[in-house]
Amino acid sequence: MNLLSTSSTAGGLGFTLIYIVVICAVMWFLLVRPQKKEQKRLDTMLASLAVGDSVVTTSGFYGVVIDLTDEDVIVEFGSNKNCRIPMKKSAIAEVEKAEESK
Fold it and tell me: Which residues cross the membrane (predicted)?
């Protein structure tokens, strides 16, 4: 009788292990994979950023890039040429290339 209960416990343990692996795989496909794809898209977009591009910041401001460094950009907002704000590249949410807007 003792052998029978041990084999059913091992079978239950194997099923539980498979269940955990399946749940982890589903979570990876639903959460981690799309986030990595979005991060890759943002990195590509910021790498192709150039002077003259129109941008939208994460806070919703529209502007034009007037200077670039490795991590920072200077964005000119509105028609007032005195409104130039330096910010991190990571604060840019969308980019419209200069060639497309003309």
Answer: 12-32
Q: DSSP readout, 45-70?
A: HHHT--TT-EEEETTS-EEEEEEE-S
Degrees, nearest 5: CA angle 43-53-40 = 10
CATH class of 51-101: mainly beta
Q: How confident is the model at residue 2 (pLDDT cuts 50, 70, 90)?
A: very low
Rg value, the chain, Cα: 26
Q: Which two tokens stand for residue 54?
A: 């129109």
pLDDT at 97 over 50: yes
What does the angle CA 95 – CA 69 – CA 90 come to, to the nearest 5 degrees? 45
- For the chain, what are the domain ranges? 1-47, 51-101
